Amino acid sequence: MGSERKPSWLKKRIPPYKDVIGVKSILVEKSLHTVCEEALCPNIGECFSRSSATFLILGRRCTRSCRFCAIENGIDMPVDEGEPKRVADAVKMMNLKYVVITSVSRDDLTDGGASHFAKTIKAIRMLRSKIRVEVLIPDFKGDLSSLKTVLNESPDVLNHNIETVERLYPSVRPEADYRTSLNLLKMSKQVSPSITTKSGFMLGLGEDRSEVLKLMKDLRDMECDILTIGQYLQPRRDRLPVVRYIPPEEFAELKRIGIEMGFKALASGPFVRSSYCAVDLFLQCGYQSFWFEK
After folding, report:
1. Neighbours of 244 (CB within 10 A)
2. Are strands 265-268 and 226-231 parallel, antiparallel or unpaired?
3. How many C-beta atoms surround the C-beta of residue 246 within 10 A?
4. Percent share of the chain, pLDDT over 70
5. For 176-221, what is each residue's pLDDT tens digit?
6. Which of 61, 107, 109 is closest to 81 using CA atoms?
C-alpha cells in the first residue's frame, strides 16, 4: 500500500509561468495566502492561469493535524484585521465575479474564526453586491452561533468538506467528528434554507464502495446540494499513503449515482477538489443569469 506508481490518468500539464504570474503577483502585493499553494493542489497552475484562486484566511497554520493535509500544524499569529480588505482588493484586481474563501481550523479562537469570515464576505460585497461568494468553512466544533455568524452575511454557497467515510475518521481526521460535519450542513439548511450547501470527499484512503454510497446518502439526508469527489494524493512523506488509485470510470459511475440520489450538481474525477471549477457547479444549480449581471 502506498508504493503503487501513479497511473497515466494522474498526469497533468503545467501551464507556462507567464500564465500564472499575474495572480501570484497580486497575492504577493496584498500579502495573501491561498489554499491552492498551502495544500499543494495539483490544479494550481490551471486555476492561476485562469485568474482564479481560493483565498486562505486566518493564517497558514492549522490548529488541527489531519493526516491527509499538507498545511502546517500549529497556532498562527493573532487574527489579521486588515485581511478582509486586502482580500476584497485582490478580488477587484482579479476582476472576480465568483469568489471562494476558506480557512485553516482555528480552535484557539472563541468563534473558530467565524466573525473573520463574516468580515471578509462583507468587504467583498462592498465592492459590488452581485459578486457571488462561496465559503469553505471548518466545523467550528459544531457551534451553531458561529455558523449563524457566517450565514448572516448570506454567502451564496456554504461549503464544508466531509473528507472521508465515517470508519476512517480516527485515522484520517482524528480531531474531527463525522456527525458534527454532517450536522453542520443540516443546521445550515435549517437556519438559511435558500443558501446552497456543498461538501466533498476523497477516495483512495481505504474506503469500500458500500461506505462511499452510505456517505453520499448521509449527505443527501442533510439536503446537501453540491458534491465533489476526488482522488487523495499523498502531499508529503509524513502523511497517509495512497491505498488505491481510482480509475476515471469509477468516478464517472459515482457521479451518475449521485445525480440519481438528488444532488443538484456533482463533480467527480481524479483531479476534482472542493473549490475546483466552483462556479461551474454553482451554475449547474440553476443560477445562470447572475453571470451577466453588472
Report:
1. 16
2. parallel
3. 23
4. 86
5. 999 999 999 999 999 999 999 999 999 999 999 999 999 999 999 9
6. 109
